[in-house]
Design brief:
The chain has two domains: 17-215 and 431-495, Rossmann fold; 217-427 and 505-543, Rossmann fold, CATH 3.40.50. The longest helix is centred in the middle third of the chain and has 22 residues, at 216-237. The model has no long low-confidence stretch (mean pLDDT 95). With 550 residues, it is an alpha/beta fold. 44% of the residues lie in helices and 15% in strands. A hairpin with a 2-residue loop joins β14 (482-487) and β15. The protein has helices at 5-11, 39-45, 83-97, 110-114, 123-129, 148-160, 172-187, 216-237, 253-262, 270-275, 280-296, 310-313, 315-327, 333-340, 343-353, 356-364, 367-375, 390-407, 433-451, 505-519, 535-538, 543-548, and strands spanning 25-32, 53-59, 70-75, 102-106, 118-120, 165-170, 193-198, 241-246, 266-267, 302-307, 417-422, 457-462, 472-477, 482-487, 490-495.
Length: 550
């Protein structure tokens, strides 16, 4: 493939490793673990992989002769910067175990395992992808490994290739499925280990043993560069409010991290909105108040960051969406009646079918957004919340509120808007030095867990605000992160999503600063990711990690 000058130079970069992984490794077992909640249920569902100990690695005094291992690797779910380095780390790690070890990549995600689509990843192939963004080396997919028939099909190809282990690189759902697969293979004594690696730019796969998911650092640096550019434009033109929606369906980690990096005027945190049970009107009033205060100082411009999943965290909107899902469920009489109506009459009809509170909320929405809520349904007949243009919804409602304030003589400024959504821009960026190092270390850690015969573990690299040399590598049982949640009407074991903690250091620091950021123009312009130069510029970790580990 053709490569850029930057990629040519990046290919020469040798990711840094924790010192415990640089030579021969000794495995140290720690305390036995239990799940974060629902211990009895999880223990019953995972009798072969529950209660395993935490693992850390130390440098060994003497080398141990080891047998070759054959490993299959799967990329699962959405892309995140650094995936190629996880694979590079696995490859180098198993070759260090024994030069005859082999790595196979399953194509197009978990479906490749079930459909027996794979390729051997040789040194020539791996070397083309070191320190690059994307998942294009083998591709990714969203097939869920949930059925025993799938597990058995996967086992057929694992036996054909003499695989000792599978490494599944993914987010909370993918690693939940990896744990179920590990349990099944352990139960039937299949002889195939399963190891997970924590990936998601959303940052919601984290706990005391998984300090951050890979890709979060790079993605938030990319978004922060773009936000900084927009802030500079806003401060230059001085005539627009920029409403920026950021990825983060289930948690606001991306929005909070970007706010800490760039210091915009408004940042909404979904978890705070839910905790305070704020109404849509209260959110709009808060934003309109900041716009009015800035206008009073002659500043008719600003920047607002809005998390993608905000709507689902506003209690009254959550109730409205639930009522709409019931009202317009496929095959119901009300859905048939709705479809027979003229499009111009549909919103009025819907408002008449809802409870009084939901009807009032629905009627207060801009007509375009109200229509989106009734038309854009997923295959299950539910509102596709991710398609709602939350930034435009808030922009239009803030404008309506400011018009009311103008009539009352409470707003004398101007309000023009520009809208943006940053999502895909950050998913396949060339990984930052932190993500290049972290991902390589995760992959190398996975190879050691495999060589030690472990299964049902997730690779863990901690102490990540220190120099890479001082990072602590090891493994954490996936069952330790699990609880029981209702999914599609059934209670299922899943890895607990990590939301923004309102008593955590990053959020608390943000709260102390947002008042001055709202009224002033304290913008920070981070600029592009730096790959070459002083450590203090190039190897910075996230503001979130710095505050959490301060």
């Amino acid at each position: 493939m053709s490569i850029s000058a930057l990629q040519k130079e990046r290919a020469k970069y040798q990711p840094k490793l924790p010192k415990s992984l640089k030579g021969d490794v000794k495995l140290v077992e720690g305390a036995k673990t239990e799940s974060v909640a629902d211990q009895k249920d999880i223990a019953e569902l995972f009798p072969n992989t529950y209660g395993m100990p935490l693992i850390s690695f130390e440098a060994a005094d003497a080398a141990t002769e080891r047998q070759p291992v054959n490993v299959g690797v799967i990329l699962s779910g959405g892309q995140a910067p650094g995936g190629h380095n996880v694979i590079s780390g696995i490859f180098d790690g198993i070759k260090n175990i024994h030069p005859d070890s082999k790595l196979y990549g399953f194509l197009g995600g978990p479906g490749g395992l079930v459909d027996h689509k794979y390729m051997e990843l040789t040194a020539d192939i791996i070397d083309e992808y070191r320190n690059t963004g994307g998942f294009d080396i083998i591709g990714s997919g969203r097939t869920k490994l949930e059925e025993e028939a799938q597990f058995d099909k996967g086992l057929e190809i694992a036996k054909d290739l003499s695989l000792n282990a599978l490494v599944i690189i993914g987010g909370d759902d993918s690693n939940t499925n990896a744990c179920v697969l590990a349990e099944y293979y352990a139960k039937i004594d299949a002889g195939v280990q399963v190891i997970g690696c924590p990936k998601t730019i959303d940052g919601d796969l984290k706990n005391e043993m998984i300090e951050t998911s890979f890709g979060f650092d790079t993605a938030t640096k990319v978004y922060s560069e773009l936000i900084g550019n927009i802030q500079r434009d806003a401060n230059s033109a001085k005539k627009y409010w920029h409403f920026i929606k950021l990825m983060g369906r289930s948690a606001s980690h991306i929005g909070l991290e970007c706010a800490l990096k760039t210091q915009p005027n408004i940042t909404l945190i979904s978890e705070e909105v839910a905790e305070k049970k704020q109404t849509l009107g209260e959110v709009v009033d808060y934003m309109a108040g900041i716009v009015a205060n800035r206008a009073a100082d002659g500043n008719n411009f600003g920047v607002a960051l809005i998390p993608e999943g905000l709507i689902e965290f506003i209690p009254e909107m959550k109730t409205l969406i639930s009522e709409l899902n019931d009202l317009l469920a496929e095959g119901t009489d009300t859905e048939k009646e709705f479809k027979m109506l003229k499009k111009s009459h549909r919103n009025e009809w819907v408002a008449g079918q809802l409870t009084e509170t939901s009807s009032n909320v629905f009627s207060s929405l801009p007509s375009g957004i109200a229509t989106q809520l009734t038309l854009d349904r997923d295959p299950h007949g539910n509102v596709q919340v991710s398609l709602i243009e939350t930034e435009k919804l808030l922009g239009e409602m803030v404008k309506t509120r400011l018009d009311e304030m103008t009539e009352a003589g409470e707003f004398l400024g101007k309000f023009g808007t520009q809208y943006h959504f940053f999502g895909y821009e950050g998913r396949c960026a060339a990984p930052s030095n932190f993500d290049a190092d972290y991902c390589y270390s995760l992959g190398y850690t996975a190879s050691v867990l495999i060589s030690e015969g472990k299964t049902g573990y997730m690779a863990s690299v901690r102490n990540t605000t220190a120099a890479a040399d001082e990072w602590i590598a090891g493994g954490v049982p996936v069952t330790m992160m699990m609880n029981m949640e209702k999914r599609h009407g059934h209670m299922k074991p899943v890895i607990q999503k990590a939301l923004v903690e309102l008593d955590g250091a990053p959020y608390k620091f943000f709260v102390t600063k947002r008042g001055e950021w709202a009224t002033g123009t304290e913008f920070v312009y981070p600029g592009p990711i730096q790959y070459f130069g002083p450590t203090e510029v190039c190897d910075q970790t996230t503001e979130t990690l710095k505050l959490e580990q301060a």
